[in-house]
Amino acid sequence: MEKKALDRRYEFVLYYDVQNGNPNGDPDAGNMPRIDPETSKGIVTDVCIKRKVRNYVELAKKTEKGFKIYVTEGAVLNEKNKEAYLVNELKPVSKKLPTEIEDAMKVTQFMTDNFYDIRAFGAVMTTEINCGQVRGPVQFGFSRSIDPIVQQDVTITRMAVTNEKDRDKERTMGRKHIVPYALYRMEGYVSAPFAQKTGFGEDDLELLWESLENMFEHDHSAARGNMSTRKLIVFKHESELGNAPAHKLFGLLKEEKRNAEMPPRAFDDYEIKIEKSGIPAGVEIIERM
Questions:
Q1: d(C-alpha 82, C-alpha 185), whole Å
Q2: What residues are paired with 189 via a beta bridge?
Q3: Which helix (H) or strand (E) holds 118?
Q4: For residues 109 and 186, what is the distance between their CA atoms, to the nearest angstrom?
């Protein structure tokens, strides 16, 4: 069955929150939660959220053809690139694409057909075994918390010890870095022209929405606390080039605290407002959650 090509532009805004956890540690700051030093608002990188989307797709589509994940933990990318040459009965030349344009297109096409994250996010595959470079239609911005966050350093104790020499110690000490509560907002984009180039179709788009809605349900850990997707709001254009600038659409969404005098500690402490009277012609707002 042939895929239905994506023929419309989309933007979206994702709201998610964290309670007593570290949503994205900064290795340059002792793994403390990432923060904007000028505003004290929390930051989560695009790479962090893409990782969660990849993990969800890998779980949800593990038996289905065309939904492999290229960037996985411990992956040797050259081994994955080699598959494209073997299937097309081509011999790789170090760091070079095949000389024939048709052959070069075949190896790149194999990668977009078989790996969901290449089809969605793109990839630079110009390694020792060269499969080219793909610009993906799906792009995420950095997430930012609605309000400044508190980077709390919590001391914890452990009753067990690691080494024989420490057997007589009563307990050992450790630390956890948490955010007591924060609501984050991430803005994203889906380009129809780039989707047509990579083969990212309607079914792939639906899987993206599903991943964003459910990615935290299989990512729980002691370090990340309680993280949940709260709202996913999609802007659907009537045309593939779009009917309004993305920044104007994002500006239609406002977040307000219900009690300005109290620090937020739950999603219900906020109200998400959509200025529906300002929706431009040719754009539809879809509230997925």
A1: 39
A2: 11, 139
A3: helix 116-121
A4: 30
* In-domain check, residue 154: yes
Secondary element (H or E) of residue 161: none
Number of domains the chain is built from: 1
The whole model's pTM is what?
0.91
State how far the Cα of 204 lies from the Cα of 119, in Å rounded to an integer: 9
Taking residues 184-209, what's their average pLDDT?
A: 96
pLDDT of the residue at 83: 95
CA distance 84 to 106: 8
Find out whether 192 and 8 touch, Cβ atoms under 8 Å. Answer: yes
Q: Is residue 187 part of a domain?
A: yes
- Helix (H/G/I), strand (E/B), else coil: 173: strand
Expressed in angstroms, the distance from the first to the final Cα of the chain is 30
46 in a structural domain: yes
Question: Is it the case that residue 53 has pLDDT exceeding 60?
Answer: yes
pLDDT score of 2: 61
Residue 4 lies in a domain: no
pLDDT of 43 strictly over 60: yes
Eight-state DSSP code of residue 68? B
Tokens of 212: 């964003």
Name the residue type at position 121.
Answer: F
Beta strand extents in the chain (DSSP E only) = 10-21, 25-26, 32-33, 41-44, 122-126, 130-135, 138-140, 143-148, 152-158, 172-190, 226-237, 253-257, 270-274, 283-287
Note the pLDDT tens digit of each residue in 201-218: 999 999 999 999 999 999
Tokens describing residue 252: 């239609």
Identify the pLDDT of residue 99: 92
More confident residue, 280 or 175: 280
Q: Residues 34, 38, 42, CA angle at the centre, nearest 5°?
A: 30
Q: Which residue range is the domain that position 255 belongs to?
A: 10-287
